[in-house]
């Protein structure tokens, strides 16, 4: 089957633009916004040739993986718009639960919550893990439009059939987990789960409920962590995320440190030093 929206997403007014291959679904979505698109547009592809991750890093999407971007045009301020990344993580995790209930989870590695975890986890701020390995990444990019509006591209990249091996962190794919799922099936579930989670978010008014749901899936909660922030490393124990979804750790001096942006490392990487 080709890409299609769930009936719930269609009923909520979402639209779909599907491609066999694109340069970047995020870039294409923002182009649509600059050309006057009103938002609520999903741009999807099974192949992405110039995708990007956080901090300008490349994100490979070979044939059969999922590259999906939701374009939203909002009147909300950037602070609340940024929390849509947590909505995206929850929506994807819910979709994965629905389409891959028999995924084979193994002993955790240098990320996630280690042994005994049999679920898809959310790693702050923007990754989805399986057995401590990166399965998916989320990237939010935005541009200001006229009349106080903000266009935000919520990019979601999932390793469906393949995962990179030349990266400095463990990675996995749905195929490696034994889940016989294709990108189209996953996207159908994702479009449904997004509608539900966005209703909970409610323009930022439901952020407390999103935070509670996110923490229930949080990778590494209560474990040793190292966070690299602009060349510096802060070490401690991952305690929570606060009401603004900032990462909170209890450092080696016993003080709570709130972090708005940074690269998070768990387990052995945290102990040895965040590279």
TrEMBL record:
| The protein's Enzyme Commission number | 6.3.4.15
Query: What PANTHER family is this protein classified in?
Result: BIOTIN PROTEIN LIGASE, BIOTIN--PROTEIN LIGASE
SUPFAM superfamilies xrefs: C-terminal domain of transcriptional repressors, Class II aaRS and biotin synthetases
Keywords from the UniProt entry: ATP-binding, Biotin, Ligase, Nucleotide-binding
Residue ranges of domain BPL/LPL catalytic in the record: 8-202
An annotated Gene Ontology molecular function: biotin--[biotin carboxyl-carrier protein] ligase activity
Protein's UniProt keywords contain Cell membrane: no
Q: What is this protein called?
A: biotin--[biotin carboxyl-carrier protein] ligase
* Reaction(s) this enzyme catalyzes, per UniProt: biotin + L-lysyl-[protein] + ATP = N(6)-biotinyl-L-lysyl-[protein] + AMP + diphosphate + H(+)
User: Entry's InterPro entries?
Assistant: aa-tRNA-synth_II/BPL/LPL (IPR045864), Biotin_CoA_COase_ligase (IPR004408), BPL_C (IPR003142), BPL_LPL_catalytic (IPR004143), Transcriptional_repressor_C (IPR008988)
């Amino acid at each position: 089957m080709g890409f299609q929206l769930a009936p719930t997403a269609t009923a909520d007014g979402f639209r779909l633009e599907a491609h066999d291959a694109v340069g970047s679904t995020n870039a294409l979505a923002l182009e649509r916004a600059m050309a006057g698109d009103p938002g609520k547009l999903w741009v999807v592809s099974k192949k992405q040739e110039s995708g990007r991750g956080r901090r300008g890093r490349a994100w490979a999407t070979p044939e059969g993986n999922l590259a999906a971007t939701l374009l939203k045009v909002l009147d909300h301020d950037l602070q609340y718009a940024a929390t849509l990344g947590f909505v995206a993580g929850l929506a994807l995790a819910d979709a994965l639960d629905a389409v891959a209930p028999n995924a084979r989870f193994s002993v955790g590695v240098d990320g996630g919550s280690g042994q005994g975890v049999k679920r898809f986890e959310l790693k702050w701020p923007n990754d989805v893990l399986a057995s401590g390995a990166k399965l998916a990444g989320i990237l939010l990019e935005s541009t200001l439009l006229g009349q106080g509006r903000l266009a935000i591209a919520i990019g979601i990249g999932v390793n469906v059939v393949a995962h990179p091996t030349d990266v400095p962190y463990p990675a996995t794919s749905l195929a490696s987990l034994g889940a016989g799922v294709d990108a189209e099936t996953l996207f159908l579930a994702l479009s449904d789960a997004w509608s539900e989670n966005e209703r909970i978010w409610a323009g930022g008014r439901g952020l407390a409920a999103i935070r509670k749901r996110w923490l229930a899936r949080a990778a590494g909660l209560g474990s040793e962590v190292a966070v690299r922030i602009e060349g510096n490393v802060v070490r401690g124990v991952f305690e929570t995320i606060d009401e603004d979804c900032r990462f909170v750790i209890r450092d080696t001096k016993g003080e709570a440190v709130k972090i708005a942006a940074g690269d998070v490392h768990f387990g052995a990487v945290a102990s040895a030093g965040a590279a």
